[in-house]
Design a protein that fits this description.
Layout: E1 2-5, E2 20-23, E3 26-32, H1 45-62, E4 70-77, H2 83-93, E5 102-107, E6 117-124
Parallel strand pairs: 4-5
Antiparallel strand pairs: 1-2, 2-3, 3-6, 4-6
Helix pairs in contact: 1-2
């Protein structure tokens, strides 16, 4: 049975999808744009990565999960030239010494609302 997860602490979906779906002990968090609850988006990659990860964290917490429960990250970035700046922020949420999740990072031509980054995750309770 699937359970839809929603929190006011992350932006509302901008299309026909859920913020997250829980199935059993697994949680699938939709890609999070770097938009705050007021609909504002920062301009640089570091601030955008920070906001996307804050949104991911808020959704995880709403479902009773923690960042340490994340087993897979899916990252879409519009400029791989900004990869090291993104990675700097990402490593604050997933420190290398704390067994970070597997990750896919893909450069894309564009993202909704002109975002520079979008981050989704899969989490699993042990």
């Amino acid at each position: 049975m699937k359970e839809i997860i929603y929190t006011e602490k992350a932006p509302k979906p901008i299309g026909p999808y859920s913020q997250a779906v829980k199935v059993g002990d697994s949680l699938y968090v939709s890609g999070q744009l770097p938009i705050d609850q007021e609909g504002k988006m920062p301009s640089n990659i570091k601030e955008q990565a920070e906001q996307s990860l804050k949104n991911v964290k808020a959704i995880l917490e709403e479902a009773g999960y923690m960042m340490s429960d994340v087993v897979m990250s899916l990252v879409y970035i519009t400029d791989m030239g900004k990869f090291s700046e993104f990675n700097e922020v990402y490593s604050k949420y997933f420190p290398p010494e704390e067994k970070p999740p597997a990750r896919i990072t893909v450069e894309v031509k564009g993202l909704p609302k002109g975002a520079l980054i979008e981050i989704g995750v899969i989490a699993q309770k042990a």
